[in-house]
Structures are given as structure tokens and as C-alpha cells.
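User: Hey, quick favor. My workstation is busy. Could you predict this chain's structure for me?
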Amino acid sequence: MQIVDSITAIKAKIKEWRQQQQSIAFVPTMGNLHQGHLSLVEKAHKLADKVVVSIFVNPLQFDEQADLSAYPRTMDADIEQLSSVNCDLLFMPTVQMMYPQGTGRYSTVVVPGMDDKLCGQSRPGHFDGVATVVSKFFNIVQADIAIFGEKDYQQLLLIKKLVLDLNISIEVHGSPTYREQSGLAMSSRNQYLTDIERDNAAVLYQILLDVKKQLEQGQYDFATLQQQAMEKLKLAGFKPEYVEIRRAEDLELATKKDNKLRVLAAAYLGEARLIDNIACYLA
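Assistant: No problem, here it is.
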């Protein structure tokens, strides 16, 4: 695995691969990698000749400086894990490199329709930061394919819309949420959980499964199902932000006429903010 930390170096390598008629897949990350990230790399290998992974803790995605400062940096372990899944190129830019005029002076990419709902409401500016840095990475790497996990489903739809709206020449692929044996969605933020909280965290997924089951059984009172799920989370010790039944293709409010749904949730358990979602396809 080759490691580069400059835009000039990665562009040179991409140019070399292009001259060899190699296809390229890209997996952007913020590091602190787990098996879920590695599954994205493994999928990328099935879709392209070469796989590029980036590690960059993007300051524009954080609501608070303290959260940014506390985000775990595990570079040695990340490099070891990426080597184990045969990543071809690791790109590790600095903040100065990505935002040479500073994070207070930069062009911003805004994708309408995603920042006014779900995580967009509770984390103002977050998705603008995602769209901006992803646009920059797409321009730098010039990959054929990009892989994103479905755990961040709202982010996945935002990036697909970004690519469509701006005619960016890249295919965006989603990859199923990678889960622990308990059902808990793997996330870098899971390490903020205590041992007791971690044992309890899988309740979030179980509640989503219960909502899905009731929908499949013909329960169409979405408001009641959502409220019941919120109450169950509270009883289990969570501080829920939302449980929502939404239209899968655009996350707009679902109606009884919609048959492709997503059940999404966000909730705090102790210091950890957990998000999860599941698909629900009705006959």
C-alpha cells in the first residue's frame, strides 16, 4: 500500500493508473477504522482495479470544537487494517492542504433538501461540510466509483443528489450497514459507550426491526409507530432525537401510498450519539 499526503502525489498516481487503463474506486473516511470501513474497501475491490482510501477528519462536519478535538486519531492501527485488505493507495491530507485559506474562508457546497430534516435539523451545517469536502475529494481523486455505507443513509442520499445535480462523473454505491453480533451498527462513536451501555445499545436496532415488522403487518399509523418507538427508547435509557418513517428515495414524509420506506433513528446513549436505519419494502 502506498501512502501519500499531498494532492500532487495522489494526482500523479491516478494519472499513472489512467495511462494503464485501470479503473479506480474511492472510499473516503475520517479514520478510526473498524470492520464496517474495511467492508467498503472489500466491496471497492470487487468493482474496480485500484482502491483509494482517504483519512481526513473534516472540521466542517463538527458542530463543536470539543467534539472535533476528541475525535479519535488511530493512524497506526488504521494503516495496518487497510494493508490487511489490500488498499492500493492511502491519501492523508492535512487541514491546511484541504482548506489553504482556512476553514473560515472557503467555497461551500450546499445540497438542498437534506439539511432541513432528521440529522440536518439537529446538526446545522453538518451536511454542508460533508458536501463540500466530498466535492473536493471527488475533484482530487477523479475516481470512477465511490463507496459509502448505508448506516449514514441521509449522507448517502445527499452525495447521490450532489453527483446528479452537479454532473460529477462518478458512480456512487451504497454498502449495507455492517453490524456487531448483537445487531449494533458499527461506528467509530461506539467507543464512547461504556461496557454496560454497549450491551444495551443493540436495543436501538431491535426497535427499528419492530417498527419494520409492524409496517409489514399493515400498520399505517406512522405517527403512532414513531411515538411508540421513541417511548421504548426512553424506557431503555436512551435520549432519542427522532424515529422517523420516511420515503426511501428522498427521505420525504411517507404516505400510505409509498412502498419503499426507510425507518431511521438517532438517539444518545450516554455520551454517544447513535444513528441507525433499516429498509422496509411493502407489497
